[in-house]
Amino acid sequence: KNVVTWNTIIARYAQHGHGIEALHLFEEMQTLDIKPDKNTYVGILSACSHGGLLHEGRWYLNAMKHDHGIQPTIEHYACMVDQLGRAGCLEEAEGFIHKMPFPPRALMWRTLLGACRIHGNLELGKRAA
């Protein structure tokens, strides 16, 4: 198996809400000395988002930089905005959008807007719109 194969399996687990399984697979991948890449971390952050693993998502975003020297891309930041929104951390998600080193994409604001609707935050929803 190569990194592309591992990334594909991790992404499938993530899409189906099996966050813990995706994280276990990621750990197994590393024990086999297969180096993660930026796509691996998109899958991991997505798995944390869909699996309700906010603490883990924050940890993995930090680990990708410090443990593997991978600089987060806008896709990684988008995963974190989704994760924070799903967890109801709406103000933090907004702050995350403003602090990231990229201009935010409309999708991020729509993601935050959807989370505001779900969590009933009208004021932040107006700002996100």
TrEMBL record:
Keywords tagged on the record: Repeat
One example of a Gene Ontology biological process annotation: system development
GO molecular function, one term: RNA binding
PPR repeats: 2-36
Protein name: Pentatricopeptide repeat-containing protein
Organism for this UniProt entry: Taxus chinensis (Chinese yew)
Taxonomic classification: Eukaryota, Viridiplantae, Streptophyta, Embryophyta, Tracheophyta
